[in-house]
Specification:
This protein has about 300 residues and is of the alpha+beta class. The chain has 3 domains: about 45-105; about 105-150 and about 260-285, no CATH class; about 155-260, Chitinase A, domain 3 (Roll). It is built from 9 helices and 6 strands, in the order ββααααβαααβαββα. It has helices spanning about 60-70, 80-100, 110-135, 135-150, 170-190, 195-200, 210, 225-235, 265-290, and strands spanning about 50, 55-60, 155-165, 215-220, 245, 250-260. The strands form 2 sheets. The protein has a 4-stranded antiparallel β-sheet, with helices on both faces. The chain has a two-stranded antiparallel ribbon with strand order 1-2. A hairpin with a 2-residue loop joins strand 1 (about 50) and strand 2. The longest helix is centred in the middle third of the chain and has 27 residues, at about 110-135. The two termini are about 50 Å apart.
Length: about 300
Amino acid sequence: MAPPTRSVPPTIPTGAPRRLPTTLALGFAAFMAMTAVAPAQAPGSDTVIAKVNGVEIRQSDLNLAEEDIGRDMPANDEAGKRDYLVNYLTDMLLIAKAAEAKKIPDSVEFKQRLAFIRNKALMETVLGQESKAAVTEPALRKIYDDATKTMTREQEVRARHILFRVNDPNDQAASKAAEDKVKQTIERIKKGEDFGTLATALTEDPAGKQDGGDLGYFTRDQMVPEFAEVAFSLEKGQISGPVRTAFGWHVLKVEDKRTREPPPFEQVRGQIEQFASRKAQVDLVTKLRADAKVERLDKPAEPKK
């Protein structure tokens, strides 16, 4: 027998928001995507797949079953998946018929469950419609344009560094030894040795050994102040003097400087669609709650927000 129907999470879940690119300065992360609603069956394609005691199982039934238990199905090819769903629906129809023979549909408990499932299906359908209506090309473009208008065009630097660590900042001897190493390294660079090659050989930054000390592009606030001050004061191609930070002694080379631009629309389209969809749902729920009279009888009334 196929496994019983799993419990479906609420359509509007709560919990930690998904982190989205900071370059699009919107409240996208405050919203989470709703459970997907299966697309409507195309006219003429809802074929009969099987019959159980004369009751038809159609393609649309398989679609609903897959939406319900899809993640719980064992890994299989398309044919195996179809067989699994047909078996699941067959068992469901047979057991449902047995339940009717036991007059279960007449019980109060069943009627309560049926009402709950109906309301949940109605909620998901309406929320799905709200999402679809919100995700239009003009709406998405407006969200993108509004967001990019508020972005600060921050300067970014791409730099390489070579680090000689000082584990104890109070160890003067270790600090002096690290400073001497960085001065010797600067002399070698001035004599023509390649910065990246020296970084791979000498740096005590583990990540730097893998990529020649390349830190990629960063903004001023992404680095410790002492390092950022030097990096942003140098011009492209310049080498610094010894730089002291809490990590030890550095020498750095500025590879490039640029002004950070907004990401292309297509790159963040998915996040914008998610935001627009979720916001439409939340706006609807907020409006309905504001217009409703909701009474909690299990605890003292709270002032209406």
